[in-house]
Amino acid sequence: MSEVLNVPTMAEMMAQGKQPEVLFWVGCAGSFDDRAKKITKAFVRILNRANVEFAVLGTEESCTGDPAKRAGNEFLFQMQAMMNIEVLNAYEAKKIVTACPHCFNTLKNEYPELGGTYEVVHHTEFLKQLLDSGRLTIEGGQFKGKRITFHDPCYLGRANNVYEAPRDLIQKLDAELVEMKRSRANGLCCGAGGAQMFKEPETGNKDINVERTEDALETKPEIIAAGCPFCNTMMTDGVKAKEQEANVKVMDVAELIANAQDL
Amino acid sequence: MYIDNILFAIILVAGIGFFAKNVKKLKRNINLGHDVNRTDNPSARWKNMAMIALGQSKMVKRPIAGLLHIIVYAGFIIINIEVLEIIIDGLFGTHRVFSFLGGFYGFLIGSFEILAVLVLVAVIIFWIRRNIIRLKRFASSDLKGAPKRDADTILYFEMVLMSLFLVMNAFDLHFQDMNSGNIISRYLTPSPDTFSLEAVIIIERVAWWLHITGILVFLNYLYYSKHLHILLAFPNTYFADLNPKGQFDNLESVTKEVKLMMDPNADLFAAQPVDENAVPSKFGASDVQDLNWVQLLNAYTCTECGRCTSSCPANQTGKKLSPRKIMMDTRDRMEEVGRNIDANKGVFVPDNKSLLNDYITAEELWACTSCNACVEECPVNISPLSIIMDMRRYLVMEQSAAPQSLNAMMTNIENNGAPWQYNQQDRLNWKNE
């Protein structure tokens, strides 16, 4: 698989004396998790197609500190934050886009007080902006008429009130957007937040991701759309637990758009 | 007649005085928490209070409970206008002093009577939801014992007060003779065949006295009850966090230390200036004194409706965490600390207990996904999540007591800048895969 992705780094940009339009914060999942890497690449293909001048930090990027903070380790969080802020400020970053709602929330809300103030957008918001400004056109393609349900990531929805951008994008695909009984502000967590992704759940009678996947399956979807690499993992596992992987796919909104354009 | 008025004045002063004394205690207990600035952006704060507390905007998210609650809430506020008349009558020996308003008086009392019936019906439905239908959030183990009795007591109080109001009107022959505003009570008024005139007068007086003393007793019951929310919902919504829900506070004490660590010019071995009075800072919260005053106000404001718990993903999947219990435990511990202070001449004497472990266990705290569903659900903007986070901070930073797998995750972040064991130098490998 040697496709050519144009992924400049901030260091390369700087060497050329250029400042990108937007810095793409890939995040740990987007960099290392096999499933999430596909989302990263889908998003990059869209950026390349829309001729967006972006750059990544590459090896200079480090964990935002979100899971450490939610676990209660404020020291580690602030260490990470301040190191990242030094790097971001050195590159004079202005606008940051990320496909991870946890990075999004931390960069947007928790970095300013520590000296890092940027315009931070989630990739669904950024794609919506590209669409609205005419830089990106979306056609339904293979998703025309398909039943798609969107799972609201807590750190995008409730935490930051972004509910419409991902839905607008799905509707642009001429897909049939179906809502779960609990959605938007009432959406149920996938079970990964608050550093739960990195530990076993406490004793209970059910896994949260299964509970949430049942919400999604009730809508009889062909695709469960997500906007978060961790939700993606949790819902994918949930679909497997319900033995529905042959019928229902879990895809990121960026993948839907990239696939619709055959990117 | 003077004896009546003097007795009334004594009851009134005693009732209000005792309540004022408890309000002082309430303030003292809330101020056990450390300071946090919640005075910025007053216009947004007033708006929150107007919409959420006064306007009940979050209550109607659950329409049945919301509508019934609005009836009880509006009924109680409006009917209490009548209390003003009762107080004047009681103090000066007048009878229905506002009746000179004529038709308008009839309109007022008529509305009160209709509301009283509506409140009575709503409260009975509330009682049925708790005791017969036994909705899950009212039947859960959080509410076993005293909280359950408290909830029922409040409902009985309201039933009795509304009934007394109607009986008082029905047996008031002077009022019935006016035949204006007795929309409901006219049907309850006694026939001369069954009650003697003396009996009617006595019943009216008894109902009148019980009604006003009942209101004063209820006022004083508030402090010992979850029902404090009728007052505290207002300051609570005013002082609630205005930031996006995902934004957790950055601990300032940590910022100072981290900045020092990262400053290449800092001499880490130099003696730091010593402040004689400084209390050594503790990271996170293990007891109520480590929380901030808004979190403690939250605890007093909580009316244990359980919407938070019923929307909590951990609770729904059988974990021990219940956001409502977090708030109830915080209040119980705060009261315990308050009693300790009262018993020890104004000074807290360590009792070898703490909010952590004795009330809230680590297992509950680690079950939270920080999803903010509880915060979103709370009809009065309480944040159980902020308390959970502060207690996790204590577990991790003071006790190094995180679950093993989380320690591994944090070690990875420290060593290689990612929660998993991948080399930071491989961060861009995806590009060529």
The topology string of helices and strands of chain B comes to HHHHHHHHHHHHHHHHHHHH
Q: What is the overall shape of chain B?
A: elongated
**What's the number of domains of chain A?**
2
Summarize the main sheet of chain A: 4 strands, parallel
User: Structural class of the secondary elements of chain A?
Assistant: alpha/beta
Largest sheet of chain B: none
For this structure, the CATH topology of the largest domain in chain A is Rossmann fold
Based on Cα principal axes, name the global outline of chain A. globular
**Global mean pLDDT of chain A:** 96
Question: Helix amount of chain A, in percent?
Answer: 40-55%
Query: Helix and strand string of chain A, N-terminal first?
Result: HEHHEHHEHEHEHEHEHEH
Q: Secondary-structure blueprint of this entry?
A:
The complex is a heterodimer of chains A (263) and B (433).
Chain A: H1 10-15, E1 22-25, H2 27-32, H3 34-49, E2 54-55, H4 66-71, H5 74-90, E3 95-98, H6 101-110, E4 119-122, H7 123-132, E5 147-150, H8 164-172, E6 176-178, H9 208-218, E7 223-226, H10 229-241, E8 249-252, H11 253-260
Helix pairs in contact in A: 3-11, 7-8, 9-10
Chain B: H1 2-30, H2 42-54, H3 63-79, H4 81-92, H5 103-131, H6 136-139, H7 146-170, H8 173-178, H9 197-221, H10 229-238, H11 252-262, H12 293-301, H13 307-311, H14 313-316, H15 323-343, H16 355-358, H17 362-366, H18 373-377, H19 384-398, H20 404-416
Helix pairs in contact in B: 1-4, 1-9, 1-15, 2-10, 3-5, 5-7, 7-9, 10-12, 12-15, 15-19
